[in-house]
Amino acid sequence: MALNHTFDLNHPLLEAGLESPVNEDTVHDSFSQLIAEQSDNEGLSDAFELQQLQRDLDEEGQDNVVRLSRRRHDDRDRRKHQRNEEWEDDERQTDTLMGEQWSSDTLKVLSSMPSRTIGRSRGAIISQYYNRTMQLRRRRQSRPSIRDFSRSARPSIRGYGIEADITDAEGVEVSKRDRLVNNLQNLSVSDRVRMLRAMPLSVAEKSELRRLALQKERHSHSGRRIPCCSQLKYYIIIALRHSWYSWLSFLHSLQLWQVALKRVSGRFGTAVLSYFLFLKTLLFFNLLLFLVTGVFLVLPQAVHPPLLLDGRRRFSGLELLTGAGYFSDTVMYYGYYCNYTLHRSCRDNGGEPNMSVSNGTRLDCVLGHLSYKMPLAYFFTIGVAFFITCIILVYSMSKSFGQSFTIDKSHSILAMKVFCSWDFKVIKKTSVKLMSENIFIQLKELLAEVSYKSVQNTTCQKLGRLMVHGLAWAICIANTAACVFGVCRFSEYMHQNLQQSSRADLAAKNPLLNEASLLAVPVLVSLINLLLPGLFNLAAWMEDYDSPSVPTYVSISRNLMLKVSVLAVLCYHWLGRVAADPESIGLTCWETFVGQELYRFLLMDFIFILLDTLFGEFLWRLFSEKVLKRRRKPVFDIARNVLELIYGQTLAWLGVLFTPLLPAVQILKLFLLFYIKKSSVMMNCQAPRKPYRVSQMTTIFITLLCFPSFLGASVCVTYTMWSITPSTSCGPFRELKTMFQAGKRWVEELQKDNPNLSALAMAHAYLVENPLFLFVGAGIFLIVIYFHSQVVDGQRKIINLLQEHIENEGEDKKFLITRLQFIHEQNRTHTRRVKSQDSSC
User: Fold this and answer.
1) GO molecular function: any one (predicted)?
2) DSSP 8-state code for residue 340
């Protein structure tokens, strides 16, 4: 049987420049109409991919299409009645789409479905894009942008007439290819590139078309001679473009720790990578804090140093651990900063220390150059630094919520990773290896998530697991409470010891021993933070969770409970004992003492992290390989390490009021910690035995950093500035009842000098002095975060419903095709029965 095929190049869809129907809903909604059209159509429009199957059915004589189609007109009423009865009575239909020999009617319907006519014919595609290039050539003077064309890349062959002989298809296709190449040659470079990208052809065929177009273009330009000015212009443009791309590549290579993060991701997956990304985020927060305090506090005070009445202490080396001694008389601590207004003219003329007007500054100093009020600068710098950090944290958390709480079903992501994850621009061997390892780990995580199935436990098993979970949590809470109580009692004991030492004047007799004793509380707290998470891991091992990601979240919650409790006790010790009665322990500047305490805690935390890396990872790996003769390495504990980062960052935020240079210490700590942890992970640790994909880990880290950490530090700093009386002999707020009065005095002075600024005084009174404004601002931030999370959650639900609707549409199509096949089988049986009756008669 000769099959005649031709393509109607003047079809309205082609003239409109459409690749497929714009309103595809009409295609899907007209499925019943499509069946009726096929039943009324006496011609045979076979699908290209089903031709051989249709030919086999015709040769075996299993179906007579023409007879069925003619008889269908006569028996339509009778079949409607039968169809209604069969649809009510037949419930035995199953999915017969696999392994079934279809009838010709079913094949015709299948061949006309939109999903079966998408990108199946290369000749149709070439014909379609030939017409589109012709339209672009005709409209060269006033043609629309190529961006206005459809980008679905799903050309349909339903609109093309089928008339030509299939034996001439190759010649027709070659001629159309040549004409398409000619049209592509006459297009501009940008339109040609966009047209080739939009063609649903293979990469090889697109490259061939591009090569032919460029080859003909070179031949056409070979006879022309380009002027020297044009050549020079082209060379300059190419050189500038090459320089611009090289500059962009250089800037991209300057990203911090880019290669190291790729290596970690390729070896250990997204879970371990989330720790290092979080460390990088904390580094940027501390850089911002250090820049603000350094420019507005440290640098002005370093340029105008105050006179030290007692002289500067000698450096003994112990200051690196205790933070006291020599460092006490530097810009590192609160007590070094002056309470007067800085005037450069006063310093240059008299050489005497600059003093504020209220403390007796000379009149010529006041009338000199522009002044810099250090108390006011200190107050507003700390406030602005915390406000900027709050804004960035809220924005980061909101953005992270939107990125992580999205619909990402593992099956669809797995398909995208398999077919679309490779970057063909990567050509270096090392980069190719890193990318392949990264894709391999991601595929393992996705496969583990796809293959994971929740175990259905019986009631007794559920009750047993609930008892085990309760026992584990009881053990963790009891040990945390015991450790917190021990820290509280030990800090009280050390406070009493300092009181006795100050009364007996032991600090003056042996200052080094007195400073070394100050390390006792930081060492105890760091030791608890090192050992107690091991007990939490043991409890998690006893619980034996099914999902590999659940133990990580449980461990995070338990470590968070420990860190928050310890920090609450320490804040009470500093602000409730030391700041309330500093004279009892012989302190003249309690703010400097609290800053030294925070420096010691931060340093001891770093030292114990190094000890844990050395003994917990390196020596354990050597012991396991040399003594136990095992290749098994320890797994990187994400929960404990992340909570250590949050604990250190909380100390940095608490100490920025008392130690303006503490963010610099935190920056150095994070830099060293990144390289130490990265080396330890690559050498001493192994990937998790049960890989799992971490889609919301970064969001949880940012949330914990915002609410327990930053919110707690902000409350403590705000309470200190609003309620606690500062020291009377040191710091920029001496002789003030509270630190907050520095801003209030400045507003009063402005109002006294210029009565027109009374509105500023009222704004300061209602917005800054009134604590209700802070609660309202915090409430607004929380409401914004809540509404954003609700919007994201609503979008997730809508996407879930749409995906279920798509799945139901697919099931409906299967059901309709199965019913069509069943109805055809009934009609064929009836036809055979009628034929047998006619033959018998």
Assistant:
1) mechanosensitive monoatomic ion channel activity
2) S
Burial of 653 (0-12, 13-18, 19+ CB in 10 A): buried
Q: Which one-letter DSSP state was computed for residue 353?
A: P
**Helix, coil or strand: residue 269:** helix
> Which residue, 573, 594, 585, is CA-closest to 504?
585
Dihedral angle sign, alpha carbons of residues 634, 638, 640, 641: positive
Kindly tell me if the per-residue pLDDT of 653 is higher than 80: yes
Q: Is the pLDDT of residue 638 over 50?
A: yes
Length of the chain: 841
- Please list, residue by residue across 668-705, b when 16 or more beta carbons sit within 10 angstroms of its beta carbon and e when fewer do: ebbeebbeebbebbeebbebbeebbbbbbbbbbbbbbb
Would you state the pLDDT for residue 667? 96
Mean pLDDT score across all residues of the chain: 75
On whether the CB atoms of residues 663 and 286 are closer than 8 A, the answer is yes
3-class DSSP state for residue 4?
Answer: strand
Look at the alpha carbons of 703, 706, 709, 712 in this order and tell me if their dihedral is positive or negative: negative
pLDDT band at 140 (very low <50, low <70, confident <90, very high): low
Q: What single DSSP character describes residue 425?
A: T
pLDDT over 50 (residue 800): yes
- 735-743: long-range contacts at Cβ-Cβ below 8 A with a sequence spacing of 24 or more? 735/339, 736/375, 739/379, 740/379, 740/769, 742/375, 742/376, 742/378, 742/379, 743/376, 743/379, 743/380, 743/768
Stated as kind and residue range, the H or E segment containing 664 is: helix 662-684
319 within 8 A of 329, measured Cβ to Cβ = no
Tokens 């993060």 -> residue: 261
C-alpha 349/C-alpha 347 separation (Å) is: 6
For 396, the token pair is 């980061």
Print burial letters for 266-279: b (CB count within 10 Å at least 16), e (below 16): bbbbbbbbbbbbbb
User: What tens digit of pLDDT does each residue of 19-35 get?
Assistant: 333 333 433 444 444 44
Q: Which residue has the tokens 């112990």?
A: 318
- Each residue of 575-619: pLDDT tens digit? 999 998 888 888 889 999 999 999 999 999 999 999 999 888 888
On the question of pLDDT at 505 being above 70, the answer is no
Confidence band for 139, pLDDT divided at 50, 70 and 90: low
Domain ranges of the chain: 267-343+369-737
* Half-sphere exposure (Cβ direction) of 66: Cα atoms closer than 13 Å: 3
- Cα angle 525, 274, 262; round to 5: 130
Indicate if the pLDDT at residue 760 is higher than 80: no
Considering only CA atoms, which of 709, 716, 611 is closest in space to residue 658? Answer: 716
CB–CB of 313/329 below 8 Å? yes
Contact assessment for residue 119 and residue 155, using Cβ atoms and an 8 Å cutoff: yes
Nearest alpha-carbon partner for 137 in 187, 175, 193: 187
Alpha-carbon span 440 to 266, nearest angstrom? 8
**Which pTM value belongs to this model?**
0.70
Closest to 467 (Cα-Cα) out of 415, 355, 542: 542
Let me know: does 297 contact 381? Beta carbons within 8 Å: yes
Looking only at Cα atoms, what is the longest distance across the chain? Answer: 135
Angstrom distance (rounded) from CA 665 to CA 669: 6
Can you tell me the distance from the alpha carbon of 306 to that of 355, in angstroms, rounded to the nearest whole number? 10
Residue 311 pLDDT class (50, 70, 90 cuts): low
Sign of CA dihedral 150, 156, 157, 160: negative
Q: Rg of the chain's alpha carbons, rounded to an integer? A: 39
Asked if the model's pLDDT at residue 480 lies above 90, the reply is yes
pLDDT score for 18: 34
Residue 372, beta-bridge partner list:
342
Strand partners, 4: 165
Tokens of 590: 């309690």
